Automatic annotation (TrEMBL):
Residues 17-231 form the Metallo-beta-lactamase domain. This is Glyoxylase-like metal-dependent hydrolase (Beta-lactamase superfamily II). It comes from the Bacteria. The keyword Calcium does not apply. GO terms for molecular function: hydrolase activity. Keywords: Hydrolase. Gene3D superfamilies: Ribonuclease Z/Hydroxyacylglutathione hydrolase-like.
Length: 322
């Protein structure tokens, strides 16, 4: 086995701590950089110290995806060690640093939330929150990693593009040692979530749950002895974890179908989450909107549901409603 050490870093998220990984290759590599908070910063430094390392020993950082619990301390690391090289998906820097994309993202999500059925006030509130998360101040991506690429400084490690959780998600696999670093693509026993990202202007929105199901089948073919996740325990049975995710997705799809039946076979997206997550959705509107939009994408792909826009809001109907 190639030496891979796990660092547990605090977040304020319900999913719990996030894990960064130190890979001892030709170049000392940090995979992901936690959420920007003092406790996590102290934990990162302490974890490196216990390995006999410091921030100045890190030679490169590989980012699995742009979410702020995986990129938050990149700038702080660069302040202490400006020579660190940053590797990520081709769209990561755009999502985190391109001001025109960030402005477009807010416009895109305002429209999506309105079409989902949110009020104008809520649509603007949550669109702005989505479009202006923590982003890079100092960091730039020094080299783009694409599907099939070898990882510089890590002989034997290859990049697998694993879209779904985000539109810039990558995972790393070492065939020689059958080690798999999967970010938030697969998390044992926990629903990591399917999140929407704004497309580039002029392009269609991706359907992330369909992407996710496709990449799970690609991951299923990997002979992985050990899988390192961004959250949750280390996985020793990759196919079992994948089956768990697929079962959760199918259960959620059945809940949406049953909710539509309960609502006379027709409802807006907002009406669906209001019924499914009564008393909960108000505190996490983005999470539930993204989850249900993604499930509805899948149900439309399967010809179970169709969508019709009425007065600017999508109405979702069961095709064979009883």
């Amino acid at each position: 086995m190639q030496r891979v050490e796990r660092l547990e870093l605090t977040t304020n998220f319900p999913i719990g701590p996030v894990y960064s990984y130190v890979v001892f290759g030709e170049k000392l590599t940090l995979i992901d950089a936690g959420l920007k908070n003092k406790q996590g910063w102290d934990e990162l430094n302490k974890g490196l110290h216990l390995l006999g390392l410091g921030l100045t020993d890190i030679e490169q950082i590989v980012i699995t995806h742009h979410h702020n619990d995986h990129t938050g301390m990149v700038d702080w690391i660069l302040e202490k060690n400006p020579s660190v090289s940053i590797y990520a998906h081709k769209d990561t820097e755009m999502i985190l640093k391109d001001e025109s994309y960030l402005a477009w993202s807010s416009e895109f999500f305002e429209r999506l939330f309105l079409e989902f059925g949110l009020t104008k006030e809520l649509a603007i509130k949550w669109a702005y929150r989505k479009g202006h998360r923590d982003y890079f101040q100092l960091a730039t991506v020094d080299e783009v990693l694409q599907d099939g690429d070898s990882v510089p400084g890590l002989p034997g490690w290859k990049v697998i593009e694993t879209l779904g959780h985000s539109q810039d998600h990558i995972s790393l696999y070492c065939g020689d040692t059958q080690q798999f670093i999967c970010g938030d693509n697969i998390i044992k026993g926990v629903h990591g979530g399917i999140f929407l990202d704004a497309p580039k202007q002029g392009e269609e929105r991706a359907k992330p749950l369909l992407q996710y199901l496709n990449n799970l089948e690609i991951c299923r073919k990997l002979p992985a002895k050990v899988t390192y996740s961004g959250h949750g325990p280390i996985i020793d049975n990759l196919n079992g974890a994948i089956d768990g995710h697929i079962n959760n997705i199918e259960n959620r799809a059945n809940r949406v179908i049953n909710t539509l039946k309960k609502l006379d076979n027709s409802a807006t997206g907002l009406e669906i989450i209001q019924d499914m997550y009564r008393g909960r959705y108000e505190k996490a509107v983005i999470t539930f909107v993204f989850e249900i939009v993604s499930v509805l994408d899948m149900l439309q792909e399967r010809n179970i549901v169709f969508a019709e826009k009425l007065n600017g809001v999508y109405q979702y109907r069961l095709i064979n409603g009883d």
